[in-house]
Amino acid sequence: MPSPFAPNDDRMISRRTALRYAATAIGGMALVPALASCSSTGTSSGSSSVGPDTKADLVMTTWNIPADLVAYKKFAAAYKKTHPGVNIKVQVTPNGDFNQYLSTQLAGGNAPDIIRNTWQQIGRWAKNGGFIPLDDYLKKDYGKGFGETFWSAAQLNGKVHGIPQHTDTFGTYYRTEIMQTVGAKIPDSLDAAWSWDEFLDVAREVKKATGKAAVAYGFEGVNTAYRWLPFLYMHGGKLMEDDGKTPAIDSTEGIEAIAWFQQLYTEGLIPKSNTIKGSTTAAVENTFTSGQVGLMLFGDWIMAEIGKGLPQEKWNITYMPKDVSAASDLGGNLLSVSRNSKNPAVAADFIQFVCDQANMKYFCETDLFLPVRTSLMDEQLEFASNSEQMSLFSKQAKTVPSAMAKVETSPNFASINQVLADQLDLCFIGSQTPKETAKNISDGIKSAA
């Protein structure tokens, strides 16, 4: 999803708003009855102290995405029907630096009870105690209902610090007329996804067809450097060893993965402006909709915006390219309880209510997200729009490497992500070799760890 931590991100949020509004308008009317039928009474969690007579006032914070705000407020209203004494206020997380905001709130003892956060941030706040462990409020084996990659990523040192609510991921967008022009066969399954060599061959033909470039990549600023990592992991490499401390990218696999991606720039297949730090959502999307490229690797959440610029018959989506294995971007959110909460048991119970099967299904179908419960990951959901494409993204989401997810949810990942942005961009613009880049990233990880 678009980074909620980038300074001055009003533009990114407003662009995503269109996607959410469209879905909510279609599905919102069915929400209240569905939620009322599955309201929690405390038996859904490990806490026996939460029941119909519980009294508590809670605050939940989430990004300024209007349709999501509507959904969370309806969740709060539905929960109140079975917990009349519980009042849950849904408020907007301020734009700007999320870490600075949360640090200030925690220091003043005013942090919201429930905080919507991303995979790339949870490790930091779990380590420094900003988010409390939830294990005492969960039934034994509660996590077995979630995809293993996502449930493992929600833990630090074996303790659960957030309940996964949804994910989103990358796929390959393509312009249909250009694919017809170059005669490319579109992969129709994960197994048939383009290999790296096949992808390069298609991209070179696409560049001839456009006369400009071939591929746009979904970087959206310095905070999104981690979106390059799927290419490292699909090549058999890794950023760090399993101990979460030792750098592993300065290897044959790491250097080769960097070199392959650099080649997209040196051959002019990716526009030179489409670096990590130099990219914005609007610029990347425009490169694709204006016909400057015929391929784009980006997330499911931008489909509504692409649909505004191009009629559906002019574009579609296929799977990410693959190498030794398939891989894709780790996106999505978790819900956590802050250490300032005076009612952590109630907050944890509400989170479980929001993330139960029925409510996760509703949220994903109407707001166009991908589920993280195993029962839903294998189900054909009735998405409010772009159902065919969302089903493809659902299959692609299963390829997120668990080792990559572990790295991205590590406590020091914010610093490591900065290292990635600095060093990869230098490589992409030709200022250093892939070998130098791998070593510099490795040295940077040592300093950040």
Task: Outline the structure in words.
With 449 residues, the protein is of the alpha/beta class. The protein has 19 helices and eleven strands. Helix 3 (66-82) links the parallel strand 1 and strand 2. Mean pLDDT is 89; it is low at 2-34 and 36-45.
Give the H and E element order. Answer: HHEHEHEHHEEEEHHEHHHEHEEHHHHHHH
Give the rounded overall mean pLDDT. 89
Helix content: 40-55%
Query: Rg from C-alpha positions?
Result: 22 Å
Structural class: alpha/beta
**Overall geometric form:** globular
Concise overview:
The chain is of the alpha/beta class. Helix content is 45%, strand content 12%.
What attributes characterize this protein structure?
four-stranded mixed sheet; about 450 residues; alpha/beta; five-stranded mixed sheet
List the topology elements:
Layout: H1 10-27, H2 31-36, E1 56-62, H3 66-82, E2 86-92, H4 98-107, E3 114-118, H5 119-127, H6 148-153, E4 155-156, E5 159-160, E6 163-168, E7 170-175, H7 176-182, H8 196-210, E8 215-217, H9 229-234, H10 252-266, H11 281-289, E9 295-299, H12 303-309, E10 315-318, E11 331-337, H13 344-354, H14 357-367, H15 374-377, H16 387-397, H17 402-408, H18 413-428, H19 434-448
Parallel strand pairs: 1-2, 1-3, 8-9
Antiparallel strand pairs: 3-11, 4-5, 6-11, 7-9, 7-10
Helix pairs in contact: 1-3, 1-14, 7-8, 10-19, 18-19
